[in-house]
Amino acid sequence: MEIINLGDKPSLLSRYIRELRDITIQTDPLRFRRNLERIGEIMAYEISRRLEYHEETVDTPLAKAGAWEASEKIVLATILRAGLPFHHGFLNYFDHAENAFVSAYRKYREKGDSFDVLVEYLASPDIEGKTLIIVDPMLATGSSMELAYRAMLHNGNPAKIHVASVIASQQAIDYVAKVFPQDITTVWSAAIDPEINAHSYIVPGLGDAGDLSYGVKL
User: What is the per-residue pLDDT across 120-168, written as a single tens digit (0 to 9) for each?
Assistant: First the structure.
């Protein structure tokens, strides 16, 4: 399994990560969502460089020209609700992709910070033999990502898997590397942070991406 941290080297991506983390900029939800979308666009481009292509011929007004077209069928999946802006950035580039949506949320137990991750909704096409890209901006423990993936397996087995996040904890990276198929999975992140706290939030992270995008939930 390959782990790719796009934040290893400074780039334009670094600015968008900085703005997502900055508590003074986080007060603007439109900008926060747009930055998630921008990172999705950048990451979609990077993933596109790993796809298989075939050459086609197109007619221009003057002559024929060779052109490259992706050979892989893409299914773009996200976890509601925080994943929506990030997903939209990917969809801007993979505009012919099929789409899947999974609801996965934390249900806290009566005492303490422990919780279970529950999946209650799945809308997914057939993924058999296709390239599955699962996107979620915050990869804290990896549990939601695993459950979303296993829920989609009811609709087939993908040929390739790309797991994409904006910020991941090292713990989640290690967990995904253990539970996802080693030979077909690539994990992408724009930043990898060292730890999670008692509430399983990434530290330093950026807080709750869903709340910052769409408002505080009850």
Answer: 889 999 999 999 999 999 999 998 899 999 999 999 999 999 999 999 9
Q: How would you write 194-208 as a 3-class SS string? A: CEECCCCCEECCCCC
> In the prediction, which pLDDT does 105 show?
67
Q: What is the pLDDT of residue 75?
A: 98
Strands 138-139 and 160-169: what pairing?
parallel
CA 175 to the chain's CA centroid:
16
Sorted by sequence, the CB contacts under 8 Å of residue 120 that are 6+ apart come out as 103, 105
Amino acid at 91: L
Any idea which residue has 């296709």 for tokens? 130
Pairing, β 74-80 against β 131-135:
parallel
The full DSSP string for 89-125 is HHHHHSTT-EEEEEEEEEEE-SSSS-EEEEEEEEE--
Half-sphere exposure of 122 (CA within 13 A, CB side): 14
Q: What are phi and psi of 77, to 5 degrees?
A: -120, 150
* Residue numbers in the chain where pLDDT is lower than 70: 105-117
Half-sphere exposure of 209 toward its Cβ, with a 13 Å CA cutoff?
29
